[in-house]
Design a protein that fits this description.
Layout (H helix, E strand, L loop, with lengths): L2 E7 L6 H13 L5 E4 L2 E3 L3 E3 L5 E3 H10 L10 E5 L4 E6 L2 E7 H4 L3 H18 L2 E5 L17 H7 L3 E6 L5 H10 L3 H4 L2 E9 L3 H15 L3 E6 L19 H4 L7 E6 L4 E2 L5 H4 L4 E6 L10 E4 L1 E2 L2 H10 L2 H10 L4 E4 L1 H6 L2 E4 L6 E4 L6 E12 L2 E4 L2 E4 L2 E9 L3 E3 L2 E4 L2 E4 L8 H15 L11 H19 L2 H10 L13
Parallel strand pairs: 1-9, 1-10, 2-9, 3-6, 10-11, 11-12, 13-15, 13-16, 16-18, 18-27, 19-21
Antiparallel strand pairs: 4-5, 6-7, 7-8, 14-17, 19-20, 21-24, 22-23, 25-26, 26-27
Helix pairs in contact: 1-2, 1-15, 6-8
């Protein structure tokens, strides 16, 4: 067996990544050798494989759901925006170019070959490949050069399931319109729909499902209920706007309050998911100085545009508030780009072309950006605990003093490191939070038995349960084995 299907969506953040991960876990639990695949991903949330390749964090998570080792061919093309017009192009885990939207077209034919070869290699070594689309398959202005949605489906003969987010409203119009906008050969591969994030009375939804089937000639394979608290590795900052339990919870006397500066080009914000898993830790995203005032810990996370986001932080007055915090001995943590901002000086002729720029001067270090990207899976110790992490950066930080902290340094209540994922190490996370709580005068003790890895596995099992309990798995099997049914109706433009 060498089956496959493509999970597309009506919009970004409709739930493609979650549905694909759920299908991977459902199949893996049945002993099927399954792998995820996303031909082209645009995301600032990435991860490093064991062999040093950079791929989208969502595909890394989906590989975990499939219970296999993540590989570069699972996400052969990764685009990392550095501004509204320019992106770094990462091919098979390595950066190859910085291009704008128009220049990218010149790379498309070569990338199409890379995508085809990667998918063929995965299919040759697996029973099933679960592919994920990007954005919407009905981006008709981009169809001619498409290598991730219907372009991929046509080239590889993949049946397509379209996911719609009912929580945003307009799901029936979005699903119908997605099909209607496609040319007939693309429509022939759209096998049906999945409705995601439903909450309410199921009987009120059924007339709409019946009408959608009558209009399109395609079934809805199931309705997935709303689930809070999954916090899976999103590739899109839209996920930060989704309702979260901690976003509405009041700060309590025993809470540890964490404010994360939400840079315009924030990257690897999944670093903070492990903090959120601790009972009593409340994580919020900050875009103004007032958002930091009552925080026990402020985190400057990673960013794809260190110099530009540092300027943004200064313009908003956030930088001044951070300096005031440090003078009051209130904890601040900088990760990767955030660490570079806390240092004395940044020399950037590569990423921004700005040349020499003063940092906040809160840590004894300086940064020089270079063309070669550092990708790795470092190991070390801090607070007497082992730490396994990953690093993705062009800026090379030279530490000139302070107390060693992972690969960076610490001065008083200010910490800096280029390592991502350190908080996923349970012993280190507990020791770090205990130190923050002590310095903040907070009556907070980390839970001694929280395992981030176990919570992640439990969440992936929840996704597998959702697929098994709420989707027509028999229909999914038929699509995987036999492709899209023949004779599906073609909708004329506009219905």
């Amino acid at each position: 067996m060498s089956g496959a299907l493509l999970v597309a969506g009506t919009t970004s953040d409709a739930g493609k990544s979650v549905v694909a991960a759920g299908i991977c876990r459902w199949l893996a639990r049945q002993g099927v050798k399954v792998a995820p695949f996303k031909a082209q991903n645009m995301s600032l949330n990435s991860m490093v494989t064991m062999d040093g390749a950079e791929i989208g964090r969502a595909q890394y998570m989906q590989a975990q759901a499939a219970r296999i080792e993540p590989r570069a061919i699972m996400n052969p093309v990764l685009l990392k925006p550095g501004s509204d017009r320019r992106s770094q192009v990462v091919v098979l885990g390595r950066p190859v170019a910085e291009v704008d939207a128009l220049e990218y077209g010149a790379h498309k034919e070569r990338l199409r070959e890379v995508v085809a070869e990667s998918l063929a290699e995965l299919r040759a070594g697996c029973d099933v490949v679960v592919c994920e689309g990007a954005g919407s398959p009905a981006e008709i202005n981009l169809r001619d050069g498409d290598i991730v949605n219907m372009g991929l489906a046509r080239a590889a003969g993949l049946p397509v399931v379209v996911v719609g987010d009912i929580d945003r409203g307009g799901v029936f119009a979005s699903l119908f319109g997605t099909v209607a906008l496609l040319e007939p050969a693309d429509q022939a591969l759209i096998a049906g729909f999945v409705i995601n994030k439903f909450r309410g009375a199921a009987e009120l939804l059924e007339p709409g499902l019946d009408r959608l089937a009558a209009l399109t000639g395609r079934p809805t394979f199931g309705v997935l209920p709303w689930k809070l608290g999954l916090y899976l590795d999103s590739e899109d900052t839209l996920a930060l706007d989704a309702p979260r339990q901690d976003a509405r919870a009041p700060y309590g006397n025993e809470s540890l309050r964490v404010a994360v500066v939400r840079f315009p080009r924030i990257s690897n914000f999944t670093d903070l998911d492990a903090l959120r898993c601790e009972p009593g830790v409340v994580v919020r995203y900050a875009a103004s100085p007032g958002d930091l005032v009552d925080a026990d810990l402020v985190v400057l996370p990673g960013t794809r545009a260190t110099v530009a986001d540092l300027a943004w932080m200064r313009e908003r007055g956030i930088a001044d508030e951070i300096v005031r915090r440090v003078k009051r001995d209130q904890p601040v943590l900088g990760v990767c780009g955030g660490f570079q901002m806390l240092a004395r000086h940044i020399d950037d002729e590569y990423e921004s072309g700005a040349g020499g720029v003063d940092g906040l001067g809160l840590l004894p270090a300086s940064t020089v950006f270079q063309g070669e990207k550092i990708l790795g899976r470092p190991v070390g110790r801090a607070y007497g605990e082992p730490v396994r992490a990953y690093e993705i950066h062009h800026g090379i930080v030279d530490v000139e003093g302070g107390e060693p902290f992972l690969d960076g340094c610490r001065v008083g209540a200010v910490w800096g490191t280029t390592w991502h994922g350190a908080m996923e190490n349970d012993g280190f996370r507990r020791a770090f939070l205990a130190d923050v709580a002590r310095r903040a005068g907070r009556d907070f003790t980390p839970a001694p038995d929280v395992s981030f890895e176990a919570l992640r596995e439990a969440t992936l099992d929840v996704l597998g349960d959702l697929v098994e309990e709420h989707l027509d798995t028999g229909a999914l099997w038929r699509l995987i084995e036999h492709g899209a049914p023949s004779g599906l109706p073609v909708l004329p433009p506009g219905g």
